[in-house]
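Morning!

As promised:
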Amino acid sequence: MNEIPHHIAIVMDGNGRWATRRFLPRVAGHKSGLDTLRACVRRCGEIGVRVLTVFAFSSENWNRPAEEISGLMELLAMALGREVPQLMAEGVRIHFVGDRSALSGKMRVGLAHAEAATAGNSRLIFNVCFNYGGRWDMAQAAARLARAGEPITEQTIDRALALAHVPDPDLLIRTGGEKRLSNFLLWQAAYAELHFSDKLWPEFDAAALDEAIKDYGQRERRFGKTSAQVALSAGKKVA
Ligand code: IPE
Ligand code: IPE
Ligand code: MG
């Protein structure tokens, strides 16, 4: 069995292209992407991943056509109404990560409700990054520290960031063939192993996730050390 990453982060990209190839409106791709996400959450819980963080809407996605933005907002509202029972059944605790001030009051209530309802679950922590950007996160963390008059150190910044409740991601997957971060987890991805899949997000199935985890298992994570040092400390752990 492959080593299972503790924390997987995913840039769920390619919904629009998936829809366009089928002569469907882009929002149909986002709907199909929600089905993929549901299956991915289940699979992560089953195989022992402890934290899953997904990029659902970026700070820059406000630049999209109004129709697509409202379609995405409706999809989130619908998901909030429907998905909580499955999260409860699977022991999933949901957190929304991002700037909520731009969201409607009704939406904010819905997010808080889903978080409160699942707060007692601990099998899998599921972070949904919505209206999130790595730069927004660093700026809000710095502003928070300045307000509190705290010193600026790696530790204080870490604690002020929006993902302070989880360790950094071990594996960062991006679907859809693009090889960029698009302002996702700029701070936290410092030592994540990167896996790029050409599959469009609606097509990213359990086999594709397993492949990403297998790829991860073959990496040597050195964290600045030499390969010989890593081998030595791995040997010591076993002994
Ligand atoms: C990712 O899929 C989902 C969001 C950004 C909300 P895209 O909508 O970016 O799909 P492509 O990249 O256009 O195919
Ligand atoms: C990143 O995808 C954001 C999400 C998946 C939510 P984009 O499709 O918005 O990224 P770019 O614009 O191609 O870099
Ligand atoms: Mg895209």
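The first helix runs from residue 15 to 21.

Hope this helps with the figure draft.
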